Amino acid sequence: MIRPAFLFSLCIVSLSLAADPPARPAGDPDGVRKTTAFEQERLRQQFSAFQQSLLGLAQRLEKSAKPEDREKALVLRQAIDLASREGIDTQFSKLVATLTASGVTLREIEGAIGQNEQLLKTLREMIQLLLSDNQSAKDKEEAKRLADMLKKLDSVIRSQKVERSKVESGKGDKDNLAKGQQKVTKDTKDLSKAFDPAKPGEPKSGDPKSGEPKKGEPKPGEPKDGKPKDGQPKDGQPKDGQPKDGEDKPGDQQQQPPSEMEQQRKQIQDAMENQKNAEERIKKDDRQGASNQQDEAIKKLEDVRKEIERRLKQLREEELQRMLANLENRCQRMLVLQQEVYDGTKRVFATIEQQPDKKPTRTEDLKAGELSAKEAVIVVEANKALQLIQEEGSAVAFPLVLEDVRDQMKVVQARLFRTDAGKFTQSIEEDIIATLKDMVASLKKAQQDMKDKQNQPPPPPGQPQPQKLIDMLADLKMIRTLQEQINKRTKSYAAEYPGEQADDPAIRKELHGLATRQEKVHKVTRDIATGKNVGQ
After folding, report:
1. In 3-state terms, the chain is what percent helix, strand and coil (to 5)?
2. Which of 106, 135, 164 is the last residue of a domain?
3. Angle CA(85)–CA(37)–CA(119) in degrees, nearest 5?
4. DSSP 8-state symbol, 24
5. What are the tens digits of pLDDT across the range 141-167?
6. Could you tell me which of 74, 36, 40 has the C-alpha nearest to residue 54?
7. What is the end-to-end Cα distance of the chain in Å, rounded?
8. pLDDT confidence of residue 211
């Protein structure tokens, strides 16, 4: 979970930007402008310190051995990337420069207002990103708690079914059967404590609250002898501000409905009553009556189980929605950057083609080097997305495609580093762009499919989930696209580098990578065909 201090700092900067400038004497516009400029510079420095702290925390979490810490680091990096992409520091500096310049025009002031609004928008987006991580952490804690409760509940249900089978068998001493049922009842009572809605440190139902007197003791401020102090109303008379008899008390009309946990605890307590009744009937040797009571207890416990499973499913879907949105944002960012590299590559190549010797000059070498560095940034972004989806663990073809496109980015990075901006390099970039577009489309469709599925009634027990079939088709489609790219690239290499063996070590490395790609596609296709991926 993101530290509250980070969110607090970011909220303070955002609220300060939205606040009106400090009041100044009328007729002193320069004073107002200078004061506002001073405040903007202070906010710029405050945000810069916040950004550095955020970066330091992200770097520490990235080195953690815990997957949840590394996932938090990914969210922090997203917030940092958003600030860098939108140029928040530059926007602050422009605002300060505008406000401190002499002879500022009305148009420049209007521009400064627009910059301020854009700053606010970006800061709010950062807050939403960080808050989404907090919600994700809370949901994971809730899912873990529910999973533990479900495990205990399953154990109680199994034990109750065993005791029921003993009773129905007609065998066994009634005293031993009663002891067995008594143990299950005790385990159920222990289980009910996990469903207590009282928070840690708060009194449980029926316990006096902290600071409240025990039964029979006077409340703070009341005389011990029961006589009212001077100015206090007598018994039966309301105090000032309190309603008279027959009048609604504050909150009477807006009683909160019981929470899910309170309802489930009530169901478990009802099941305990059935279990106690079963004990009594066993002692009276009424086995049929005892079995009926045990049936009722099992039914109520299984109803609680269904509710927990429903909540766990809901939390899982919310987690997947966040992850899909996260991956889509990352792929969109990679797509924008890759398109920029591609456009730059074509410009460099066009300039080289205009040279008499068709060779790059020092200028083209520098520009290609800049593009190579930019491609390296995309590779880093792809690694972060790949780490996220691999740790999630349920996807099949998507991580393969993402890993493949990452490797192709590395090929482009190496080619641009040696100022190879030719048609072959551009074709690789075109494949990367096409794959990223397919990935974005798949992620959008997956999110929509999940929303549609939430609005549909659950399928009858025993029927396969239609979502699994759709996921498999989507996987196969992506694998087919990847195979088509490999075939196309194989033909391109054959045309570009004829002969049985390429002499250039860099090209041999690329060909080896192509063979590795084919092996990976073969493996994941075989896994899908044999059902090895099912249940992952």
Report:
1. 75, 0, 25
2. 135
3. 25
4. -
5. 788 888 888 999 999 999 999 999 999
6. 74
7. 27
8. 44
What's the whole-number mean pLDDT along residues 436-464? 71
Sign of CA dihedral 297, 301, 304, 310: negative
CA distances from 136 to 57, 131, 219, 275, 500 (A): 18, 9, 43, 39, 54
The whole-angstrom separation of Cα 311 and Cα 195 is 14
The pLDDT tens digits of the residues spanning 217-275 come to 455 445 445 444 444 454 445 555 455 444 444 444 455 566 788 888 899 999 999 99
Tokens in use for 421?
């901006």
CB 416 within 8 A of CB 369: yes
- Which pLDDT value is given to residue 132? 60
How many CA atoms within 13 Å lie on the side-chain side of 371?
Answer: 33
Domains identified in the chain, total number: 2
Tokens representing 391 are: 């740790």
- Return the closest-CA partner of residue 294 out of 272, 275, 279, 267: 275
DSSP string covering 367-387:
HHHHHHHHHHHHHHHHHHHHH
Measured between alpha carbons, how far is 257 from 505 in angstroms, rounded to an integer? 72
**Residue 304 and residue 310: Cα distance in Å, rounded?**
10
Any residues with CB less than 8 A from the CB of 527 and at least 6 apart, and which? 396, 533
Three-state secondary structure call for residue 222 = coil
Asked if 402 and 326 count as a contact pair (C-beta separation under 8 A), the reply is no
Q: Is the pLDDT of residue 293 over 90?
A: yes
**What residue type is assigned to position 440 of the chain?**
V
Report if residue 178 sits inside a domain: no
Q: What is the pTM of this model?
A: 0.57
For residue 352, give its domain range: 327-530
| Cα–Cα distance for residue pair 63/59, rounded to 1 Å | 7
Does a structural domain hold residue 267?
no
pLDDT tens track for 51-103: 788 888 888 888 888 766 776 777 777 777 777 777 777 777 777 777 677 66
Residue 199 lies inside a defined structural domain of this protein? no
Name every residue whose Cβ is closer than 8 Å to that of residue 493 and which is 6 or more positions away in sequence.
502, 507, 510, 511, 514
Reply yes or no on whether the pLDDT at 527 is more than 80.
Answer: no
- How far, in Å, CA of 277 to CA of 271, rounded? 10
b/e per residue, 112-150, with b = 16+ CB within 10 A?
beebbeebeebbeebbebbebbbebbebeeebeebeebb
Judge whether 399 and 389 are in contact, CB under 8 Å: yes
HSE-CB at 179 with a 13 A cutoff on CA atoms is: 5
Where among 103, 135, 167 does a domain terminate? 135
Q: What six digits make up the tokens of 123?
A: 């800061």
Residue 357 has which token pair?
Answer: 């010797």
Looking at this protein, which amino acid is placed at residue 219?
K
Q: How far is Cα of residue 238 from the mean position of the Cα atoms in its chain? A: 52
User: Buried (b) or exposed (e) across 272-282, using 16+ Cβ within 10 A?
Assistant: bebbbbbbebb
Q: Is 140 domain-assigned?
A: no
Give the pair of three-digit tokens for residue 307: 């509710």
* The one-letter amino acid at 58: A
